[in-house]
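Dear support,

We are seeing what looks like truncated structure output for some complexes. This example has two components. We would appreciate it if you could run it in full and send us the complete token output so we can diff it against ours.
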Amino acid sequence: MNKTSHLELLIALLIAVVSTTLAATVWRIDAVSSSAGDASRQGIIDTIKKQSGANEDWRKTYEEAGFAEGYAAFLAQVQALETSGDPNAAAQAASLRQYLLPNLQMLGAPLSSDPGYQKADGTYDLQKRFADLEAASPDLSGLDPQASFTLADRYASEQRWLTVVSVLLAISLFWLALAEVGGKRMRLTSLVIGALAYAAGLLALVGIEAVFLILRGGVL
Amino acid sequence: MTEAVPVPAPEPEAPEKDRTRILVVVLTVLTTLITTLVAGLQADANSRAAGSNRDSQVLAIQASGELHRLALQSAYDMNVFAAYLKDSQESTVLQLTALQQQQKGQAAAAADSQLQAGVAQARADTAQKFSIFFNDSRYAPTSAGAMPDMSAYVTDSYAAANALVAQQNAASAAYDRWNRKGGAYTSILAILAVTFFLFGLAEALAARLRLLIAAFGLVALAIASLWTLIVLLG
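Here is the complete output from our reference environment:
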């Protein structure tokens, strides 16, 4: 076997290796793209769950706020009767305070009963009540859709970089094919360029995988 | 006895014919390169479209939630304000009644009306204390007897929801743009597939037709490349 035949065999082998690497890279791009889609989907599901929880907590907050304001107004009414100086009104006020006010206070609880929700001006701290309701349901309010979206973005970013690798491998294939079919004069030059492009692609592939593996905390 | 028919040996291709074959191989490899680039661009466009689509969905959910919260808040604010209006007007009417009763010499009835007016006023004062239209300086009346600034209240209330909807529209527009690009790249890839077919056919054909078919392939390759540039820069 002469020197030319050896070179042709080497080029053919390199073409086979580069083709296999390219196929593996395309598979990895597809897998990464699929993972990005999964993470995005999870993020949207978490967003819907979290928002539904917040919607319910706001509904409950304003429902309680309505009852609590009603209680405060009725309390003012009773106090007005008590301070009117009219014995009949005072008697009515005493009955109302004893029998009706506790029920109204219960309806508006805990805003109307817990001093922690009362502001200095006598109104109620609705933001605090909402925050407490959210804290009481950590299974919904504790969801973090942004974490899923960040993960999805990292997968998408890796997908783009892997696409660059696939271009490098395609360039390598291009030059190796040229080396295979080209004349003797350009063969060695084309082979070197093709091999360098492959080396760059392979290095980039390993680097990208390592970097994104670390960024994702070891998750493939 | 049969005489062996001599089989003519295949004529070696002329050097220029060999060159056209190599040219077709080079064009095929070039098509592979361009196809890889377009596939990469398509992957990027699809990835960006998916991201924008996701953002638009998330923002739509958030805008919907904000509108839900806003509806609850508005209902509460309006109920408190309506209660204030009712009780304060009831107090005024009962005071007038008491005045009329006094003028008629009905002292006991006047005192009773005055008591009820006081009770209504106490309720109205409480509602006023709770109402955002009185305790928030952005909406509170600037003079006695004036009405709260409802217009400012409505504008402020919808500000957050409007901002979310504006962001959602922008994300949706970005999705449309990237999705269109992704679709265009798919069409370009289809043209490149035709190009591959033509170059493959050219390789298999006799030398005379090879150049013609390769020329068709080259035209298809040029169209695909030009379209890619237009989509990329558009």
